[in-house]
Amino acid sequence: DTYYAQQYPVTHYTKDRGLPGNQVWGIYQDVQGYMWFCTSSGLIKYNGKSYKIFGTEDGLLDEIPLGITSDEKRNLWIAYDYGVSRISNGQIKNWKLKESEGQFTLFIDSYNRIWVHSLFFQGDVLYFLDTTLVNFSEEHSFKNQVIVSITEDKEGGILFITREGKVFRYFANQIKELLINDLVDSNVRYS
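-> structure tokens emitted (191 positions)
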């Protein structure tokens, strides 16, 4: 018997192929098929043939995006060192969240809340409901945490994983610390 593995074509997008910057921190493909790259040269939109660079001259908060995702309304959300931008139907709205470096990252849950937290520094956990910014940490006395990841379990509970290795679960308007044994059947999804 002879077996053949399927070979998929791989394209490397680098400066040699026209990508404006080789340092890439985030990649996202939107529902229209456009590729978005968070690079050291700015936010790049790629249509399969050419690149368009977006930066502060276009209304974005910063020149160096760190992450990108979109919500169920097809709004693009971009994270930066100091805050977040949203692109909605070509209109840009910015939220400066910190005066000093925060290195923010994003997670969108099944309720379409856009969670924002600093990846490396102590700070508040925030989320957006549409364009309303909510300080989750203040509402739930969850201050001065260094969150390395936010994810959601199969029941819709939000899990916060800290740099210290602790896991907290927010569900039914309550937050509690979980032990490793509590996570065995949680069926966590990551993004």
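The first helix runs from residue 136 to 139.
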